[in-house]
Each structure stands twice: as structure tokens, then as C-alpha cells.
């Protein structure tokens, strides 16, 4: 038994040395990468460079842990297999590392989806390009030399002697860091999506070691490939679009989606704000939950004379990214990951919000509480026409609090207020994150108390964060109305279905989000009395409120000043009914005692139109061919 424990301790000691060795390799490589490509670094301090190195070290714990595990398993089987594994790992590590330099110079990114797209290219032409332009053969030679050196060093790693209990404790620590990406629990786990919190794009890319960058490329490509699309031919799309567009006959979708504004309903606002509030569900505003007092801020906004509210409003999809793509690109969720789709980065879609709002004389800004690398959000919104993007890296300071998803709402709104130029007309999308697990806002410090307590502590924490998000949002709107009385505000949730008091909520309570419009010139019933919609209807609503008569714009959605139909990836809604949009004929879940006078066959056509046209534009463009 003593021999067994001695052997086990030696085995774990060997694993610890391998783990540390890989961390040194990745950290040294990252430091050289930053030094060699320092021309790509923006205006940052040395502290920010060290911060990026620290984040990279933490993230590489995951990579080092996986490689260590592979080698240890091979070691248990045979020494020969271990040598094979070590050889393959060091060759691949060296080749990827040398390749990362020209790849960044070419694409201004660490490894991304382009490495998978290359499979569909002319491989011979690519090979010649690599040889002639990127000096493939010399780089490959040096990569092999580096892998040989690493191989020799590996099998000469010093033997360390550690007390058995300390070895077990260190092994437990390393396993935890490997699982949670350099963190001790999932609440603070680092991944390629939340790691980019410096304000410099190059540093955010340098944080990723080569394996993490390849993994990111694989995940994003998998998301793109998972878009199964819809069974619509060009002729199907043309027929559906024609029904919705007064029998226009064209092979260009821009002809079907072109709309002409009816003329401004309110004075043209100086500033426009769309606040996408994390997990803000409409059920919190319903009367039967009023005793919770977790949405009193938005209720007071709704009750003001310069506000209106649509209670039958759907999110674009089940996740935050769907809300972003619906509002930014104007396209419905149609089984495509727009933030990974190559077409999204070539030019703004026909229905994109920023270019059209810019035509009305507004500067376009996107403010996000989280890292710019999440879902490639910075690249996506700027490719879709936003002039300025501000993420966690721009806002982050040592005294600012937050979690793995982003900074607390309070600090996000303070940044917007401080940095927005009130003298320049602006269109601003603000995406907050506080009302999201792991729910880490310091609620005691903020002196937030729930009006009603539940036995489930987790539920109390969720409701308290909802209260916090509501209160900070109300404060921001009040502050901005004082600073800029000519402003217009649109408040929506990104999605619901994260927290319900009822264990078996109706589809309405489970999925619906609020749509609130408030600001100068807004009044009760400015929206259609039977309005219903989804996030693709936000842009046309704004344009119909503020644009001069005959202003041309393009949208799949319709303004809530007239629209009475909402559609998303799973549901449809009217003022009186909600139901499954994937089940034909449509089955209704009543919301009121009033019977809908809807033509349900026409509604089915509308559902197919919204999804089909969104898919076609995203995948193939405007031409019906």
C-alpha cells in the first residue's frame, strides 16, 4: 500500500510539473506575440498589457490542464505512447504559434472561422500563397526546431518532491482551474467569449492561446453550420413577399421591403435610446404580481403621460444574441447565428437599423456592459453600421463592480451619461447584464430589500436583481430626461423565460417581454390600441414616430403604431391570443375574453414571410435567384 501511494504521489508530482511547463510555454509565447506585434496595440498603459497577460495565464490553465491530462493518460498506458503524444502536441503547438503571427497580420484576429473556410478554397493556390507570401517553409522549419527543443526540455523536467497532502491539494486546485478557465467556480469562469475585457482589440486577441483560438473558431463555425434554414425556394419567398406588399412583382427583396413613412407623429428627438434590459420579463409588470414591487420603476414610467406600453410583445429569440440581431439587423431569428455568419461582416443588411437611422441625422452608438468578444458583438454591430461601440474594456475601472458577464448596470448607465455628447444628435442602443446569473450585485450595499420574501433563497436573489435592474433603469431615464428633455426612450427585455414565480406559467407569462416607449411628444394610445409585435418591429416604430413624410426605409417588421401581429422563432401573439407558431393550423391560447377577428390563414402566411425573408436575406442577400 505504501508503494502504491508513493507511486501515486510521484505520478501527481509529474502532472504538476507538466501543467506548470505548459503554462510557461503559453505565457512566454503570449509575451513574445505582444512584443513582436506591438504595432497593432492601441493607446494602452503597461498595466493593461500586464492585465491581458494575467487574463491569458488564467485562460491557458484550461488548455494546460487538457494537454496535461492527455499526456498523463498516455503515460499510464506506455512510455512509448507518451512520447508519441508529446511529439504531436509540441509540433502542433509550434506550428500553430508560428502561424498565428501572419494570421493576425492578415485578418487582425487570432485564429477564427477562416481556418475552416479554407477547406472550401483552392488548396493548391492556398499552399502557393503560404509559401510565397507568408514564408511557409522557413516558418515550418523553425516550428519543427522549436518543437524539438520543447520535446527535449520536457523529458528533462526536474523531479520535485512534495508532501502527499500538499500534492493532493495542488492537484485539486489545478483541476478546478482547468475546469473553470483559471477560476475557482463557474460564476467567475473565463471562456473565449467573456475574456475580452480590455479596451484594446489586439490585447483581447492576444489573451487567447492558439488552442483556445482554434476552439473559438470551431465553436463559431459549428453555430453557423447548425443553421438548418427553412424549406423555402426563391419562388416561395417571392409569393409570400408579394402577399405582404400589395402584389409587387420583383426578384429583388428591396422592392418588397421598401416603406414610406407617414410623417412624424412626435417632434424629432435629439437623442434616441433603445435599452435592452437583461431578462426583463413582462410578467413582472402584471397586476397580480404587484405585491412584489420588483418593477415599480417601469410601472411608474408607463403611468406617466408621456409614455405608452405594449403588453403583447415577443423577444426575437430565446437568447440575448437573438435580441441583438433582431434590433441591430432587423432580421427575425431563422435558425441562423448571424454573429458568426460571414455575410454579416461584409456590409449592413438591407434592414439594418444604424445606416437607416443615420440617414435621419443621428450618430449611432452601441453600449454593452460586457466584453466586446462576446458573440463577436463589437465586430457585428460595427459591421452592421454602428459608428461607435463601447464595451466593458472601455468602461472598466478598478472600482467598478460586475461579474463574468459584465459590469453592474449602475456603472454602465454612468458611463453613458458621462460620455454621450449631448450636443450631437444620437441613436443609442444600450445592453445591460446585471439581471443575469450568477447574480453578484452587492445588494446589501445598494440597500435593496424585497417587499416579499420566499423560502427559496435562489428565487429571492433573482427577484432582488430584477428590482435592482428596474431601479437603475428608472434612475437613468429620469436623469436623461432632465439632461435632454427632447429624448425618446424604448425599453424592452432581451428575452424572458429565466425566472417565474409560478411553477407552471402560461406561455404569455413565460415568454413575453415589455415594450415601453416614453419621451417628448409621446402620449397614451400613440401605439395601436391592439398593438402586438416583436423586436424586428422596433426600428419601423421609431421611424414612423419621428421620420418626415415619404422618408424611405426598409424593414421586415411593422411599426407598432399599426402592427397587431407578433412573431418570433417559436410563438405568435396578438392582443387577445398567443400560440405555437410552428403548429399549423394555429392553435390559440386566449389572453382575454375577446375573440380575435384574425384571418389565421393570412397569419400563417405572415409567419412564413417573416421567417423566410429573414433567412433568405441573411443567407443569400436581396436577390431572389
Distance between the termini: 74 Å
Helix content: 40-55%
How big a fraction of the residues is strand?
Answer: 5-15%
Q: Report the principal-axis shape.
A: globular
Largest sheet: 8 strands, mixed
Rg over CA atoms, rounded to whole Å, is 27 Å
Q: How many separate helices?
A: 21
Number of strands: 16
Low-pLDDT runs of 5+ residues are: none
Mean pLDDT equals: 89
**Which structural class should the secondary elements be placed in?**
alpha/beta
* Strand numbers in spatial order across the main sheet: 5-4-8-2-9-10-3-11
Model description:
This protein is an alpha/beta fold. Helix content is 47%, strand content 11%. The chain is built from 21 helices and 16 strands. It has helices spanning 2-36, 46-77, 79-107, 114-117, 123-133, 136-154, 164-179, 201-206, 210-225, 234-244, 253-257, 296-303, 320-329, 353-358, 377-383, 392-395, 409-419, 457-483, 507-511, 538-546, 600-620; strands at 258-260, 271-277, 307-314, 363-368, 388-390, 402-403, 406-407, 426-431, 488-493, 513-519, 533-534, 552-554, 566-567, 571-573, 577-580, 589-590. The protein has an eight-stranded mixed β-sheet, sandwiched between helices. A four-stranded antiparallel β-sheet has the order 13-14-15-16, covered by helices on one side. A hairpin with a 2-residue loop joins strand 6 (402-403) and strand 7 (406-407). Helix 1 (2-36) packs antiparallel against helix 2 (46-77) and helix 3 packs antiparallel against helix 6. The radius of gyration is 27 Å and the shape is globular. The model has no long low-confidence stretch (mean pLDDT 89).
